[in-house]
Amino acid sequence: MKLSLAIVALALAIPTASYAQDSTAVSNGEYPNTFSSGSANVSPFTNSSKRFNDWSISIGAGTPLIQSADLTSIKNGNGKNLFGYSAYISIDKAITHAFGLKLQYDRGETRQGWFNTKDAVPTNVSASEQVAGRTQYDAISLLGDVNFSNLFRRVDNHSTYRWALHGYAGVGTLAYRAYQKNLAGQSLVTEVKPFKLGSLFGQAGAGVKFKVNKRIDIEGRVMYVITGDDSFDGGGEQYSAINQREENTSDNFVNATLGISLKLGKHESHLMWHDPLQEIYYKLDVLANKNQDIEVCKKGDADNDGVCDDWDRQLDTPAGARVDGAGVALDTDLDGVIDLYDKCVTVPGPVENNGCPTVTPGIVKEDERTLEGIEFDFDSDRILPSNTPILNNAVNYINTSNGSYNVIGATDAKGTEVYNQKLSERRANSVKNYLIKNGVDSSKLNAVGKGKKDLKYPECDPTSKCPEWKNRANRRVYFEAK
Questions:
Q1: pTM of the shown model
Q2: What confidence tens digit (pLDDT) does each residue in 311-349 have?
Q3: Could you tell me whether strands 200-211 and 216-226 are parallel, antiparallel, or unpaired per DSSP bridges?
C-alpha cells in the first residue's frame, strides 16, 4: 500500500473513531437494526460523556520577597534577605488541554527593612535605618493557566510526558495589615480591606509541573505580584524620601512556592496532560518507514466494510451496508432499521414495516418478545441521549401491543452482587419511569433487576477479560413480554 494512501486513510479514520468513541455495537438477530447494530448509540461528544478529568485542587507554600518598595526584603541595608512565608489553595478547571482557570486564595507575611522585626532595633545605624516592616496579607484572585508544553511541545513518543511548563496571569482583591517597628516600638501603619477599589492587584508568573501519577502533580512556581499600593511595605510616607525612585510607586514582591495538585474525577487521565496529536504522530511515525510494507489492518477486515477489525465495533456488518468510522451500520433516520434494509431511509418507521411509517399501528407478533440496545455508563442509571430514539420506539411498540412487559435491568461483572442488584433495579426503574412519562400505561410495565447474573456476554467475568464495548453491552436494560 502506498504511504500517501495510508496517511489519508489514517487521517480520515482517527477523527471519525474519536467521534464515535462511546458507541457500542451489539448484534444478535437475523434482521439488523439499531436495537442491535448500534447506530442509535452513536452520539456526539458532550461534557457528560467526556473522557478526561478536568477539575483539580492545588495547595502550596513558600516565601515572598519584596523587591520594589521603600523597605525591601531582598538585600536590605545589612546586605541580607528577609524571608516571610506564604501559602495558597486553589480550585482549578481545565477548559482545553492547553488552557484553564484557577480560583486562588493566598495568605502570607512579608518582612522588610533594615532588620528583621523579630530582632531588636539596632542603635549603631542612622535614624533613617532604624526601621523594619512586616505585612500580613490575604488575597483572592482569578488566574488564567496556559500549558505552554501542550502548545509548543514536539511529540516524539520517545519519552514519557511527565514535565510541563505553565504560565499564569490574573487579577484579584488584596487585603493587608502593614506594621512598622522602630525605636518607639511596633505599630500598625496601614490597613486595607478586601473588595475595595484600592484593593485590586495583579500577578503573573510561571511554574514547572511534574506528573507523579494519574492523581498527583507537584509544582514549583514563581509569581510576581503587583500590589498597586505604595504603603504595602509598611514604610509609611515619612520613609518615601529614603528611595525617591519608589515614591508613589507600587510595592511589588516575588512569591516562590512549592505545591501539590490533586486531580479529581473517575477518568484515567487529566485533560491538561492529554496530547491530542500523540496518537496521530505515532501512527505517522510508523508509516514513515518506507522500507517496509505497512499492514494497516493487523487483524484484517472480516466484514469488508473498510474499517479494520482493530477499530470495528460491529464485526458482522451486512455486505453492502454503509458504515461510520467505527464500522457501525448507518441508520440515517434512527428508526431502528439500518439504511441497507430501510425502505424509507429519511423517514422513521417501525421495524416490522421495513422502516416506513404506517397509517394504522401494526400488531406485535407473538415471537417478537425482546427489544435491546439500551445501555448505560459505568456505575450509572442515567438515561443517555443515545437511548432516547430506542425508548421512543419502545413506547410505540408497547402501546400497540396487547400484552405487558418486564423491564429488566442488568450490570457488568464488576462489583459485588448486592451492589449490582440494587444498581440493576435502579436502571430498570429509570427506564420504566421514562416510558410512563412518555405515555405508556404503568399497568403494562414491571421493573425487574437481575444484577450481574444476567450477562449478555458471560465470558466477561471478570471484566478484564473483555474489551470495553462488551462490558458496556452487559450494562443494559431490555424488555421481555410476560
A1: 0.51
A2: 778 888 888 888 887 888 888 767 678 888 887 776 666
A3: antiparallel
